[in-house]
Amino acid sequence: MQITPHVHCLWLEFEIKTPAGERIPRFVTSYILAGDTLTLIDTGVASTAPDIFGYIESIGRSPQEITHVLLTHSHFDHIGGNGLIAERAGPEFLGPEAERRMIEDLDYQHGVRPVGRMRDAVSGPVKLAGFIAEGDEISPGSVAVRVLHTPGHSAGSLSFFMPEEGALISGDVLPEPGTLPIYESVADTLASLEKLKTLERVKVLLSAMSRKVSRDEAVASHIESGQGYMREIDGLVQEVLSQKGDDVSPGEAAEFVFERLGLPRAGLIPIVLRSMKAHLDEGPI
What we know:
Elements: E1 7-17, E2 23-34, E3 38-41, H1 49-58, E4 66-70, H2 76-79, H3 82-89, E5 92-95, H4 100-104, H5 106-112, E6 130-131, E7 137-138, E8 145-149, E9 158-162, E10 167-169, H6 186-197, E11 204-206, E12 213-215, H7 217-244, H8 250-261, H9 270-282
Parallel strand pairs: 3-4, 4-5, 5-6, 10-11
Antiparallel strand pairs: 1-2, 2-3, 7-8, 8-9, 9-10, 11-12
Helix pairs in contact: 6-7, 7-8, 8-9
């Protein structure tokens, strides 16, 4: 879907397989900056690479025009197409230095952040050609991009702002109400959201956690809904702590939160327990 003159958004469907054999339907978002050449932001999973190639061809361009891939962070569902993109187009891959090992060493990532069989959804590792960080201003394919460090979902998470388009791509840092809570730090996530909310000249917000395209006045309210969701979750964690005492485990906290919010029990997976641990460790907001 074309969002602005140079920014296209693709919502890509896939599934997460749990150790118990359950399948959790998910989607991940990739973006195409269509300038003099093509820049891809995040590559989905291996099975969605043909969808990316197909979309590029549908707009009259060629996958071989991809000269750069910008990675918001290292998680499998955002780097899973890297190997296939590298084989097809041979672009430069750029991402956060803090997550270099997670991007380049897939077995390492699987060891420290297991997500069912998501390791199988990655087409192959690639080497980063360079790093991008807070304050960098780059122009791949003559499309201006400002890099923002927005940690919380992961330590190195990046967002990208295209000032000439007024388009902000926030990666996974913005939680979506009603979805699985997945973040490593509550405080960092809230600080990153506040940073994005105060960014000037944003006309459209694209969040990888949402199918919504928020424009103009809806941008701030979309970010605020994510902040409110985190505060709601934190309030529930504090409630279960008050009921059971300080020895509440992440699993117990997650059970309580999921029951109160009506979230599916299939979503009680290690990465969600990690989010609950962040609430327990960091204390009340």
